[in-house]
Amino acid sequence: MEFPGEEQSSEGESRMQELAALVQKTTHNCSWWERHGIDWAVLALALSAAPAGFLLLRSESFLPLCLGFLILGTAHTVVTVKGSHLASHSSLSESKFWNKFWAVVFMEVCGSFTAEKGTFQHVKLHHAYTNVIGLGDSSIWKAPFVPRYIYLFILPLAVPVLTPIVAIGLMRDLPVMTVIRTLSMITLGMWAHCWLLISVSGFQSPLSAFLCMLLYKAIFSIPYIHVNIFQHIGLAMFSPTKKPKRIYQMAHGVLNLPRNVLLDWFFGHSLINCHVEHHLFPTLSDHMCLKVKPIVLKYFKQHDIPYNEDTYLSRLRLFIDKYEELMVRAPLLTELVGIQ
Ligand SMILES: [Zn+2]
Question: What's the CA-to-centroid distance between 340 and ligand 1, angstroms?
Answer without folding.
Answer: 24
